[in-house]
Design brief:
The model has no long low-confidence stretch (mean pLDDT 87). By secondary structure, the protein is an alpha+beta fold. The termini are far apart. The strands form two sheets. Strands 3-4-5 form a three-stranded antiparallel β-sheet, with helices on one face. A two-stranded antiparallel sheet has the order 1-2.
Length: 103
């Protein structure tokens, strides 16, 4: 499968972002910061996963692939840059977990 389309960031720019942020992948060689080729492989695997199974999305490696409902064989690529939550809605258990992570 060849990935092509309208890119806001190139694979090389994505690899640079992963390097700048220190975002690693766990591989057979241990923790590594992915290069453009590995990121392309991850995205290809996610798209292949969506094609093989009857679903509209797959996620992994900080990415989510979402099937475009209006265009056949087209997928939106999403990059997870963080998590947000409503502090007022957290349970005591959730607060305790977040406090442990901050230590």
């Amino acid at each position: 499968m060849k990935i092509s389309g309208e890119w806001e960031l190139t694979l090389e720019e994505l690899a640079t972002l992963f390097e700048a942020k220190g975002w690693c992948y766990h591989t057979d060689q241990g923790l590594i910061i992915p290069n453009a080729r590995l990121i392309e492989r991850v995205l290809t695997e996610l798209i292949s996963d969506v094609l093989k199974h009857p679903r509209d999305e797959a996620q992994g490696g900080r990415f989510m692939v979402w099937k475009d409902p209006e265009l056949a064989n087209a997928y939106d690529l999403w990059l997870n840059v963080g998590f947000m939550w409503d502090d007022d809605a957290l349970s005591e258990e959730e607060r305790a977990i977040l406090a442990e992570e901050d230590e």
